[in-house]
Automatic annotation (TrEMBL), chain A:
One of its GO terms (cellular component) is perinuclear region of cytoplasm. The keyword Protein biosynthesis does not apply. It comes from Mesorhabditis belari. This is Trafficking protein particle complex subunit 2-like protein. Belongs to the TRAPP small subunits family. Sedlin subfamily. Keywords: ER-Golgi transport, Transport. The keyword Transport applies.
UniProtKB/TrEMBL annotation, chain B:
The lineage of its organism: Eukaryota, Metazoa, Ecdysozoa, Nematoda, Chromadorea. It holds the Pfam family TRAPP. It comes from Mesorhabditis belari. SUPFAM superfamilies: Ligand-binding domain in the NO signalling and Golgi transport (SSF111126). InterPro entries: NO_sig/Golgi_transp_ligand-bd, TRAPP_component, TRAPPC6/Trs33. This is Trafficking protein particle complex subunit 6B.
Automatic annotation (TrEMBL), chain C:
May play a role in vesicular transport from endoplasmic reticulum to Golgi. Keywords: Endoplasmic reticulum, ER-Golgi transport, Golgi apparatus, Transport. This is Trafficking protein particle complex subunit. It is found in: Endoplasmic reticulum; Golgi apparatus, cis-Golgi network. Its main location: endoplasmic reticulum. InterPro entries: Bet3, NO_sig/Golgi_transp_ligand-bd, TRAPP_component. Gene3D superfamilies: Trafficking protein particle complex subunit 3 (3.30.1380.20). GO terms for biological process: Golgi vesicle transport. One of its GO terms (cellular component) is TRAPP complex.
Length: 138, 180, 178
């Protein structure tokens, strides 16, 4: 059975040395928070590996199992953006995925530009909260 | 660079110097009494953990870090050391300083010399050698900006300026840790 | 070797504005490390702005030949909101909240480029983040012999600069002059 909607469950932003910077969950993920976050975390090794050989920032789908899929994007500055989706959902086209990561990267830049933000620390920002909200609602 | 920015930079230098002067006034006079001018000057610099130069460099560091993150977002992926240096000298320099650098040299062992013959932070001084010493402090913020941008891209480096004749400057970049 | 592209649509003015905003933000962050009390930072930002304002006044007057000399507060407020602020911040401001019989007013700046990315934390509500702008207005006006007090207040949607007219400064005659 294919679920409508994009199936996006969790967004995770990880900095250098795997510092957890930000994460956001959709309403659908509220029942499976731990599983989804663990899945995102486990995918990071693969993201690291793919990033070293990457010729562009968008890495596409990096990992999946019977329940979830993981898409990733790594900036030239080494910041990893990970999106976990439900493997049963309709999913998103490649161009839509790329647009999502561009939006997240944009929001991340605005969030860290807050003069009161200390680089490397977890981020609290309306820019990211708002961007995530729009992505989950797509 | 715009007039408001130049004025802000001037004020940052003034603020840094004033803070340093206030901090100096607190230094134990017994320690400094009896030292000759050169030695006491060195002692001042050693005691000042936050002198004007480090203050300005620190402001530059954060600024450069954020600017690099924003700028490389819309560019093709930058991975190698050479690509990073090219980015700094072209797109980054254009965005921050309004022009490309004039020359880039390297010894291929982690040392780069970036030369700018008309550096915007120095154009408000008269050309030539007269104000080289006074202008030096106006290079602290730019050094910080460059160091911050390199840091964002994964390179820890030491950035030091030398200037023989205004408004020309050379930035010496010594890379301490390379990318894997 | 891949060809390096030019930055897509690098807007020189936008970059210049971003550089200014980020530098200012880094300066505020640095000042907060130097002083425990945010109100001390407000004073420093005001001083920074004041010194900048004096020089900006020269620049403004040399470029804006058509601007009439201000004879009253209303005209002064008009010039600030329609000419001065747009010239240096790139955005316009609206004038409102006239008080004390036309001697006090507010300049409301909608899209203040300085605060675009700023989210002031709860424990720093006494910080007037845009006090540099307030200081610059005070300095600029003092350069044309108008003494005012100014304060910058941030609201969730905009920046408000409260301006209060004090007096017109006359040159002090040296002692002994008739």
């Amino acid at each position: 059975m294919i679920n409508p909607g994009n199936g996006a469950l969790c967004i995770s932003i990880v900095g250098k040395e795997n510092a957890r910077l930000w994460s956001g969950l959709s309403d659908d993920a509220s029942r499976v928070v731990c599983e989804v976050e663990l899945f995102a975390h486990v995918s990071l090794d693969i993201v690291d590996e793919r990033a070293t050989k990457a010729t562009e920032n968008y890495l596409g789908q990096v990992y999946s199992d019977h329940l979830y899929k993981c898409f990733a994007y790594v900036s030239s500055t080494g910041v990893k953006f990970v999106l976990v989706t439900d493997s049963k959902s309709q999913g998103l086209r490649d161009s839509e995925m790329r647009a999502i990561f561009k939006k997240l990267h944009h929001a991340y830049c605005n969030a860290i530009s807050n003069p009161f933000y200390v680089v490397g620390q977890p981020i609290k920002s309306k820019h990211l909260t708002e961007a995530a909200k729009q992505i989950f609602a797509q | 660079m715009s007039l408001p920015f130049d004025l802000l930079h001037m004020e940052m230098v003034r603020y840094g110097k004033e803070k340093e002067a206030v901090a100096r006034a607190d230094y134990p006079k017994e320690v400094l009494e009896g030292l000759d001018k050169a030695t006491s000057s060195l002692v001042y610099k050693a005691l000042a953990s936050r002198n004007a130069e480090t203050n300005l460099e620190s402001i530059g560091l954060r600024t450069g870090f954020l600017l690099a993150e924003r700028l490389c977002r819309d560019l093709p992926r930058i991975s190698t050391e050479l690509e990073i240096m090219k980015f700094i000298c072209k797109e980054f320099w254009i965005s921050v300083f309004g022009k490309q650098v004039d020359n880039l040299r390297t010894n291929h062992q982690g040392v780069y010399v970036v030369q700018d013959n008309r550096f915007p932070c120095l154009t408000s001084f008269s050309d030539g050698t007269q104000y080289v010493k006074d202008a030096a402090i106006y290079l602290c913020f730019p050094c910080g900006v460059v160091r911050g941008a390199l840091q964002a891209l994964g390179i820890q480096a030491l950035v030091t300026p030398t200037t023989d004749q205004l408004p020309s400057v050379k930035f010496h970049i010594h890379i301490k840790t390379k990318l894997t | 070797m891949s060809k390096q592209q030019k930055p897509v649509g690098v807007d020189a003015k936008k970059m210049s504005s971003e550089l200014f905003a980020l530098t200012y933000g880094s300066l505020v962050a640095e000042m907060l490390k130097d002083y425990e009390d945010p109100r001390q930072v407000n004073l420093q930002l005001d001083k920074v702005g004041f010194n900048m304002g004096i020089r900006l006044a020269d620049d403004f007057l040399s470029k804006q030949a058509g601007v009439p000399k201000c004879t009253d507060c209303r005209q002064m407020a008009e010039t600030l909101s329609k000419n001065v602020i747009p010239a240096y911040l790139g955005v316009s401001a609206t004038v409102n909240n006239w008080e004390s019989g036309d001697r006090e007013f507010s300049l409301q700046i909608e899209n203040n480029p300085l605060t675009e990315f700023v989210e002031v934390p709860q424990d720093l509500t006494s910080l007037h983040y845009s006090q540099m702008i307030a200081g610059a207005i005070r300095g600029g006006l003092e350069a044309v012999h108008i003494k005012v007090t100014t304060t910058a207040i941030e609201t969730p949607t905009n920046t408000v600069i409260k301006v209060k007219f004090i007096e017109v400064l006359k040159d002090n005659l040296p002692a002994g002059e008739d």
